[in-house]
Amino acid sequence: MTTYNVAISLDKRAAPSARVQIAANYHSGASNAEGSGIEGSHQEINDASLLIQDVSKSYQLHDVSLNVLNGIHLEIKPGEFLSIVGASGCGKSTLLRLIAGLDTSYTGSIIYQGQAITGTDLSRGIVFQEHRLFPWLTVEENIALAFTATDVSREERKLRVAKQISTVGLNGFEKAYPHQISGGMSQRVAIARALVLKPKLLLLDEPFGALDALTRLKLQQELQRLWEHEGLTTILVTHDVEEAVFLGDRIVVMESHPGRIRRIVPVPLARPRDRSSFLFQSIKADVMADFAIVEVE
């Protein structure tokens, strides 16, 4: 099992720059396999949990093997919101694609709902940085497109689409085309399309990366509301550390060459979260310190 030791110091006499001390002991898949055993781990998680065990991924580049992910081990509990941060090229999006089942060429195992992931499945929804809406379809038509290749009845589709439009706050824009709504609204449509199939696991790959700062803040709050309302297990890949702290129950910090987990930082903050609070800012500073650039003279 992955274990965490958390020590939080709130000494009011500390200098303003003092940081909360948060230690997360991360144990690799190899260490987990010893002692507790994989079988024991499976017994402790239920069918809605996600277990990533010793996952590695390589690509061939000009006859050279490029190791993108190495020894990734994670347990994500039902209803948990997990944030993943890391520099470009550390394998964050690759890991998300593996969980989604969009790429099945890797070593190790990814177990979800008690079954190994061998391809895409309607129980796992994914939202990308680009909304990927079809410009010739309306908002409701873009959302309904998710039902392609399903046996959901026409009446049920209409009910679900209407519900998701209301959930993401787009009432009145059902007949609008993508060019008639803002980028933030388009991303809401993409989220509604992922939710309309009632997935149990929501995967988000930089969903707000292309948006302006104010729209991004608004959609972060909207995503938190949706997560609480739907009770979804959610994994967010982001470059924005503040976003990761605001939304996540835990933050997985990744490093590159090869892509691997540096550490896991718990976020022991009640919701709704105050971005200006001392503890919030301390956790943010602690995570950002992993990406500090040291000048060399």
Explain this structure to me?
The protein has 297 residues and is an alpha/beta fold. It has a domain at 29-123 and 199-291: 3-Layer(aba) Sandwich (Rossmann fold). Helix content is 30%, strand content 22%. The protein has helices at 29-33, 38-44, 92-100, 139-144, 154-167, 183-195, 213-230, 241-247, 278-288, and strands at 50-61, 64-76, 81-85, 107-112, 115-116, 124-127, 201-205, 233-238, 250-255, 260-266. α5 (154-167) packs across α6 (183-195) and α8 (241-247) crosses α9.
Please give the structural blueprint.
Elements: H1 29-33, H2 38-44, E1 50-61, E2 64-76, E3 81-85, H3 92-100, E4 107-112, E5 115-116, E6 124-127, H4 139-144, H5 154-167, H6 183-195, E7 201-205, H7 213-230, E8 233-238, H8 241-247, E9 250-255, E10 260-266, H9 278-288
Parallel strand pairs: 3-8, 3-9, 6-7, 7-8
Antiparallel strand pairs: 1-2, 1-4, 4-5, 9-10
Helix pairs in contact: 5-6, 8-9
Shape: globular
Order of helices and strands: HHEEEHEEEHHHEHEHEEH
Strand-pairing-aware structural class: alpha/beta
Strand order of the largest sheet: 6-7-8-3-9-10
Distance between the termini: 43 Å
Q: Which value, in Å, is the CA radius of gyration?
A: 20 Å
* CATH architect. name of the domain at 29-123 and 199-291: 3-Layer(aba) Sandwich
The helix fraction, in percent, is 25-40%
Number of strands: 10
> What's the CATH topology name of the domain at 29-123 and 199-291?
Rossmann fold
CATH class of the domain at 29-123 and 199-291: Alpha Beta
Q: Which percent band covers the strand fraction?
A: 15-25%
